[in-house]
Design a protein that fits this description.
This protein is 70% helix and 0% strand. The two termini are 31 Å apart.
Length: 332
């Protein structure tokens, strides 16, 4: 269990070195307890995180994660870890409906689990189930002071179409939040508010962090905010593209950069990929979003935004974990 906690710390760094460190700790644990479901869970989550956290383009890791879930199912057929890992992998593959259903089952079975609660809250944010997302994130943050959950609460207004409050918190810095995701959300808020100077300030902070695809994406977006296509593309190398291509949030962020640059083919390519992967969070934002509001009637972009809305409508019909539904009904 101690090795699992150390591994989790590595994963939550959202860096290549953090992933490597996590795998080392988990592999050491597996040598001692190869059939310990907690270690198997950790290995499955690490394989998923390699893709979700923007540190690897090796999507075969998702197959590995499912193999760990299958092993857990054989050893402990009723384990919620099976639903958890299968749900996370489904989300990474763009099947957010299956992901929501599985994570709802897992969270209902393990409402006090910090890791599961954090990622269930994240998914609820991104499918615009905001009241439920805030309720879960608030509970995790209150019980565990989890940095990711606290980051979600700090950027909730971004998903409500109110990015200014996120910008106002910039001077407080990343606090105990993971730094790369903090930079990404601050940049998203800057573009949503039309504050390109803010985007550039955040990109400058990101420049001092450990190199990796997410940091390169921040630099790409910072240069796009300067309207410098050549400088921006220097950061979006084929290796970086290959990693970002597998996540609906990262692809949408890249599409925003190209939208600022006025690069229509790449806007369509990257936004299309984001929508293919199930992205829906632009639905309540798009009309007030300083970037996307100028693309609402574009003949190639409008159909993508319409698909985005249909995603949101489908996700809204999927039942929440009963306990979370009760929290929302009580206004907690």
């Amino acid at each position: 269990y101690v090795e699992y906690l150390r591994a989790r710390e590595g994963l939550n760094a959202f860096t290549v070195s953090g992933l490597d460190l996590a795998l080392q700790h988990l592999e050491q644990s597996a040598l001692l307890e190869p059939d310990y479901v907690f270690v198997l869970r950790g290995m499955g989550r690490a394989c998923w995180a390699a893709i979700n956290h923007g540190v690897s383009d090796d999507v075969s890791r998702l197959d590995e994660a499912l193999e760990y879930a299958d092993t857990i199912a054989r050893l402990s057929p009723d384990s919620p870890y099976v639903h958890e890992i299968r749900g996370l992998v489904a989300v990474a593959r763009g099947d957010l409906e299956t992901g929501l259903r599985n994570l709802s089952v897992a969270h209902e079975a393990m409402p006090a689990d910090e890791d599961l609660g954090t990622w269930y809250a994240i998914l609820l944010f991104f499918v615009t189930r905001l009241d439920a997302a805030v309720a879960v994130a608030r509970e995790v943050a209150r019980n565990d002071e989890n940095g990711i959950a606290m980051l979600l609460l700090s950027v909730a207004d971004l998903f409500r179409g109110r990015p200014q409050s996120v910008l106002a918190a910039f001077d407080s810095g990343p606090q105990n939040y993971p730094q790369a995701p903090w930079c990404v959300f601050q940049i998203m808020a800057g573009f949503a508010a039309g504050d390109h100077a803010h985007v550039q300030r955040v990109a400058e902070i990101a420049r001092g962090q450990a190199a990796g695809p997410l940091i390169a994406m921040c630099q790409f977006l910072g240069e796009a905010a300067k309207d410098d296509p050549a400088a921006a593309m220097a950061y979006l190398t084929p290796e970086v593209e290959a990693v970002l291509w597998n996540d609906f949030q990262y692809t949408e962020c890249v599409a925003e950069g190209f939208a600022v640059l006025g690069d229509v083919p790449n806007v369509v390519r990257w936004l299309g990929r984001s929508v293919d992967l199930g992205m829906s969070y632009l639905t309540p934002l798009v009309e007030s979003h300083a970037v996307w509001q100028h693309w609402l009637e574009h003949p190639e972009v409008a159909p993508l935004l319409a698909r985005c809305r249909r995603h949101a409508e489908r996700y809204a019909t999927i039942p929440l974990a009963p306990r979370v539904a009760a929290l929302v009904s009580r206004g907690e």
